[in-house]
Amino acid sequence: MRSARILLLVLLAAPLLVAFRPFTPVQSVCDKCPVKGDRITLKDGAVVVAKVIGKNQDGWIIELHGEVRFAQFREVERVDFVSGAEPKGLEQYDQILIKNADQTVLFGTLIQIEAGKPLALRSPRGQVYMVSPEQVLVYYHRGKRRAPVAAPAN
Predict the structure, then answer these.
(1) How far are the Cα atoms of 24, 65, 73, 95, 134 from residue 42, in angstroms, in the given order?
(2) Exposed, middle or buried: residue 97 (CB in 10 Å: 0-12, 13-18, 19+)?
(3) pLDDT tens digits, residue range 79-131?
(4) Beta bridge partners of 61
(5) Sign of dihedral through CA atoms 54, 58, 122, 41?
(6) E strand or H helix at 108, and its extent?
(7) Is the dihedral of CA 46, 33, 38, 146 positive or negative?
(8) 111: part of which helix (H) or strand (E)?
């Protein structure tokens, strides 16, 4: 019973440990060209122009120049979609948030979720990522938060 409470606490608190991490600065070859993408306005006033590629119960998955970031709803003031409205299907993909300083976000479709085994995820471009349960902060399956898969009890 105690371990179930601890797992529930970890599951609820894990997303709170992650804060939006800015993208790597990139020098444009065309300073006068308009920047295209969805406009994400953060609560601190910063504006990020990137593509919103996913959504889960805790926030947005954002991509820019191949980098993927997670921005929690509590950090975002508003999102202005380039299309004028939120695209359909943003919750169709899964995400894995990795426990590391880079706040790595893997995005795609989970293809293996077994206790004690690495999680496997296939990206929309076909790459397969394997992540050990110890590396997973939290994962989202079709937009719903899930706890890391623990090793089976002996």
Answers:
(1) 17, 20, 9, 21, 31
(2) buried
(3) 999 999 998 988 899 999 998 877 789 999 999 888 778 899 999 989 999 99
(4) 54, 70
(5) positive
(6) strand 105-112
(7) negative
(8) strand 105-112
Structural domain contains residue 65: yes
Residue 57 forms part of a structural domain: yes
Round to whole Å and give the CA distance between 138 and 145. Answer: 7
Any domain includes 112: yes
pTM: 0.75
- 126 token code pair: 């076909």
Three-state DSSP at 97 gives strand
Residue with tokens 């300083």: 101
Number of domains the chain contains: 1
> Domain range for residue 47?
2-22+37-146
Contact call for residues 148 and 6 (beta carbons, < 8 A): no
**What is the tens place of the pLDDT at every residue in 48-67?**
999 999 999 999 999 988 88
Structural tokens at position 152: 């089976």
Cα 140 from Cα 119, distance rounded (Å): 12
76-80 and 67-72 beta bridge pairing: unpaired
Q: Does some domain include residue 154?
A: no
